Amino acid sequence: MTCRVLVVDQVLTTVPRYLPASEAEDYALSMVFANAAARAARKGSGPAADTSDAFRRTWMNTLGKIGWIVQSAGSGSILTTSGGGVSIAERLSQSGGAGVGEALAALKSLATSDPVDSLAESWWAAAAGESFLQGALGTVSSANGAPAMALTAFTLDLSRLAEVDGWLRRDKPFDATSAAALFVKFDPGSIDLSTSTLTATLDQQRFGAQRSDIRKALGDRFADHYVAVPALEF
Question: Whole-angstrom Cα distance, residue 122 to residue 9?
Fold first, then answer.
């Protein structure tokens, strides 16, 4: 593997090996903090239908408050009603977000290995809920001495999914036990997927003014929310 793969809760990115440890740490700190705020919003959002929207809005707002400056953003949805079987990974690749293809390739290698790599299991545990799958894939890099990210965040309605065997549809429950399910063929009409693309750079001055408070808020829990292959220690 020519790059490092980093999972921070439900966000999986590839990371070039040349990325300075300090920049990787700032990215991870900021993402753990934003994820925690988003989870809290999801728990208190009321009706189940509103939980994924509450998570997404709070996640984006928190990233902005702690110093992430958005260069570009977009959203879309993919709902195909005809054709042969297609995987969720194929649909995500069609989103056009930077770095998604490389992230999916890395995830597939780890999720289908024997035994399944703990990084893939960690990402899946954070992304897969009872009724929907909500996560992000992309890449982290360096831009003028600051971390930059290109992500495609997505939400998938799990209740609609129907696996296919050849050209036949099977009303089989979605196997929510492994990230390998992203690469299984499903009936295209059952894949209700919404995506949001994001490219952003961290303002080191704004984040630096909050870094100590963020570290204090996260405490010893910070290390419990990320895993990297190869290992990455801060």
Answer: 7
